[in-house]
Design goal:
The chain is an alpha/beta fold. The chain has 12 helices and 10 strands.
Length: 338
Amino acid sequence: MQHHRLGRSAIYVSKICMGTMTFGSQADEAMAHRILDQSLEAGINFFDTAENYPVPPKEEWAGTCEEIVGRWMKTKRRDELIIATKVCGPSHGWIKGSQRAGMTALDRHNIVRAVEGSLTRLQTDYIDLYQTHWPDHDGPYEEVARALDDLVLAGKVRVLGCSNETAWGLMKSLGVSAAEGLARYETIQNNFSMNNRRFEDALSQVCLQEGVSLIPYSPLGGGVLSGKYNDGGLPDGARFSGYLKIGGRQAAMAKRFVNDKTLASTERFMAIAAEAGMAPVTLATAWSKQHKFVASTIVGVTHENQLADIFAASDLTLSDEVMKAIDAVTKDILYPMG
């Protein structure tokens, strides 16, 4: 398993990170623990969760995912695990947090309450990477930076990161931390896949120039790049099959991931994978981690039988010919997710 540094921190992580957002919704605890065990055995030491998980967010599910991960952690050596979790962003926007009666916000009060809750559910006394789950661009960046810095000084958190942030937001945060002499964001966790390369437009330059690592989520395009939604497929148990039935925000998200352009590009990526002699999931995972600004690619599964194709990408480097073929699809079908 390849490893990489998180930003400019002292922490090195496996180039593949196991995400856990389906634990407690699509995957029960027994299955979740088997997935985590097999991931650790395969050389993955980096695991990502959040106080808002599992998804889709529901108040009755709030914190279940961290509890499942915490019970698994008690069976392992804590020092061999790099654990990442997140504090909810503001609930007055498009996303409503599942914690604190849906009244989440990015301020000192919420950050302190959130980290104490996560530490309890994870049954640990420190978090390796603590992230803001989504931003509040009109909110108090200075207050957030000071509150997070206090957690680092107290030893409750090792390093900091953000998620779903913009180039402006990341630079604003880095500027506040530099001006105040506070711990800074070492990572950014944003959507990045062969079907969604918008990160390369501006944020990749910020990461490369400022020494911040991307830890991309949805490298499989929400499962679309596996090919399971092609040819009109809406498989039972698949996330977006369920989201389309739920309606509202979830249906809107599903239509962004599953549409004519994403399915057309996926068909071409599947052909590239077949020509290269690998599964589409292996191609998508390997492509995601094969960028200078990426420290570790976050994958997620709902069943242990989905792990083999991901693990096949652990030490895989795609050839120049394969990378050029992927770029050609991007050029022909630009921004398939909008």
